[in-house]
Design a protein that fits this description.
2 copies of one chain form a homodimer. Chain A is an alpha/beta fold. The first copy, chain A, folds into 3 domains: about 5-95 and about 200-210, 3-Layer(aba) Sandwich (D-Maltodextrin-Binding Protein, domain 2), CATH 3.40.190.10; about 100-190, D-Maltodextrin-Binding Protein, domain 2 (3-Layer(aba) Sandwich); about 215-319, Alpha-Beta Plaits (2-Layer Sandwich), CATH 3.30.70. The first copy, chain A, has 9 helices and 15 strands. In chain A, strands 1, 2, 3, 4, 5 and 11 form a 6-stranded mixed β-sheet that branches. In chain A, strand 13 and strand 14 form a beta hairpin. The first copy, chain A, is elongated and about 75 Å long. The two termini of chain A are about 20 Å apart. The interface of A and B includes residues 239, 260, 263 and 282 of A. Chains A, B: One of its GO terms (cellular component) is cytoplasm. Chains A, B: Keywords: Amino-acid biosynthesis, Aromatic amino acid biosynthesis, Lyase, Phenylalanine biosynthesis. Chains A, B: InterPro entries: ACT-like_dom_sf (IPR045865), ACT_dom (IPR002912), Chor_mutase/pphenate_deHydtase (IPR008242), Preph_deHydtase (IPR001086). Chains A, B: It comes from Tothia fuscella.
């Protein structure tokens, strides 16, 4: 996604060096003078953007292995109408890749070839203790048992915190499992890259902005064809039993040949066993078949809201 | 749901006195000589039923406030084909109601009227310390601050464990927050019932069995009309891009007038951003419109599986 703006205040889910931070940097490059601020939780990002304390927010939406981030869906559902102006305006994909970071061995590094990419453990004899978030131990089990077996392990509250501790250790005998970004931000050496067991794990992030109107902000001709746009909408069904309403609502998209790219449901918060549905599709309002489908959808659903329209950035492998 | 069977071995998600235990007792009453065994995690229940070590399993499926139990959905998705014979054969609903359990005050109970249902705290002066799972503290905040303010709180691994500790305390000065079932199983007095802040919170449980065939096990005429049956099916879409396939698949249900009662999606485990969809609907195979819809669905989807058919027990408030 191309962000042409300069100097935006961007709130992202911290801490610093998190994968969300990486997504924020990819989308809002430092060369454009954006101010990126880590925020401790996702609701605070919605609040910051709704109250115009930040122009953009970057939040995790779904992981290719673990599925949707339900807290983000519930905030988008906005059952208490706290975030009426929040609209998605972009997406970003970041590969979840863990690195072993620390200090390269000073006593042996001259006499041994240095392979940044070698996970063999040849350069890791000086590493005596390891720091990371508990989840990272389980995600890197094969590497840990072959390359650094028997080392003392210390749990930390985040992988970023692990990097911070290791950066402060002047002895150079500790190492952290964290993101590549942490190497840069904390000035650490990459002892072994890409040490996670499951390759190809990826997280998708949403970019949100404050946008009081839900109409398309730009004419159709602006950028690419209609099919390179994606939109997200939510809807609920009438309270009283209307058999077939969900099937009817979904059938509307099939009728107009709209490509649904994902679908989720969550409790609506209105009453037990009443749901809010999230539908993501290719296209956007202003495009004939989308407008026709949404007009027809209105006759079936209780409430609906478009939650945003953005240029698909192609980072998603297939569909 | 009426379970006519006797003497079944039933595995449920423990510990004893959990809400799943309550669902198991409601469905498999002790009067019919069923053997109910607590099992420490949900995968072990699938394994027990798949291997015929248990004839039935009872597992949480969704909560009216928190939504679906994704671990249960992922086990039903069965991406490694470990549980090919697992089929749902029933559902049970249990209201999540917390109780303060302990020993009634012996020194004052004779001189004061005893109101089992009074949450006023009048009979709670002898309670000096509280035990429960951390989640229960936050779910009962208003009661705790008005009826038993300032008491020592001890976190336990489950609400059942709290009841066990309090039952062992002969001084009678401790109390536990747990289910009503715990009062019965641990021989404790109800000091205050229904102390949770959010009323109406309910969990839905699935009953699973080992059933190598997916055809209906009983003729349509057996019990009630077709609309009192519910079925669950999963499907995935073709690997290569087939725009509109999801909308087409969902449109099939609308076309045949089938009432969808819930819908979920999870990562399929096949590759990133590929999903498995779960559709629950009224009706079952053997019923004309369902058979027609499933036949048409097959031409759109990559794989699909019926995950079970059961009599809707009506415990669900509305739809």
């Amino acid at each position: 996604m191309v962000q042409e703006e300069h100097g935006l205040r961007v709130a992202y889910l911290g801490p610093m060096a998190s994968y969300t931070h990486q997504a924020a940097l990819d989308t809002f490059p430092q060369s454009r003078n954006h101010t990126l601020t880590p925020v401790p939780d996702i609701p605070s990002i919605f609040q910051a953007v709704q109250s115009n304390n930040a122009e953009r927010g970057v939040i995790p939406f779904e992981n290719s292995t673990n599925g949707s981030v339900v807290q983000t869906l519930d905030l988008l559902a906005d059952s208490k109408n706290q975030y009426p102006n929040i609209q998605m305006c972009g997406e970003a994909f970041v590969r979840v890749q863990h690195y072993l970071l620390g200090r390269k061995s000073t006593s042996h590094s001259q006499s041994q070839p240095t392979h940044r990419s070698s996970p063999s453990g040849a350069n890791l004899r000086h590493v005596k203790s390891l720091y990371s978030h508990p989840q990272a131990w389980t995600q890197c089990t094969p590497f840990l048992s072959s390359a650094v077996p028997g080392r003392e392990r210390h749990d930390t509250s985040s992988t970023s915190r692990a990097a911070e501790i290791v950066a402060a250790d002047k002895s150079g005998s500790s190492a952290a499992i964290c993101s590549a970004l942490a190497a840069e931000l904390y000035g650490l050496d990459v002892l072994a890259p890409d040490i996670e067991e499951k390759k190809g794990n990826m997280t998708r992030f949403l970019i949100i902005r404050n946008s009081p109107t839900t109409s398309p902000s730009s004419p159709l001709s602006q950028n690419g064809s209609s099919s390179s746009w994606k939109s997200l909408l939510s809807f609920t069904l009438p309270q009283t039993g209307s058999p077939g309403a969900l099937a009817q609502a979904l059938a509307v998209f099939g009728k107009y040949g709209i490509n649904l790219t994902s679908m989720n449901s969550r409790p609506s918060g209105e009453r037990p066993w009443h749901y809010i549905f999230f539908i993501e599709f290719q296209g956007r309002r202003g495009d004939g078949k989308v407008d026709n489908a949404l007009a027809e959808l209105q006759s079936v659903v209780a409430r609906w809201k478009t939650l945003g329209t953005w240029m698909s950035n192609g980072g998603q492998d297939g569909g």
